[in-house]
Design a protein that fits this description.
Layout lengths: L4 H10 L9 H19 L30 H5 L5 E2 L2 E2 L7
Antiparallel strand pairs: 1-2
């Protein structure tokens, strides 16, 4: 696959990008080199390679799901510097 200057102009219009007309040839060459590199990657033999979910080999720590009442308002507000009517109280920011 390769792009020509007409396609680059169309993509730029759709993406609402503006660049100098003298740069069109450079952008065309850059995009075509990127596409050629992606085509080279398709040639890599990946048979038997497991897809990665994460680059980290650590297993996630899972906890047991337990149903709770969820009524923790008092405990949460104990750490608040200021609370009023069951909510966090913060200084007024708009005058």
């Amino acid at each position: 696959m390769s792009f020509n200057e007409k396609t680059i102009k169309n993509i730029a219009t759709l993406a609402r990008l503006k660049f100098p007309a003298d740069q069109e040839e450079k952008f065309t060459a850059d995009i075509n080199s990127i596409l050629n590199w992606v085509e080279e990657l398709k040639e890599v033999n990946v048979d038997g390679v497991e897809p990665l979910i994460s680059v980290s080999l650590q297993e996630p720590v899972l906890r047991k799901d337990e149903v709770t009442t969820g009524d923790l308002q008092k405990e949460l507000l104990m750490n608040a510097p200021d609370a009023s009517h069951g909510f966090y109280a913060v200084p007024k920011m708009v005058e």
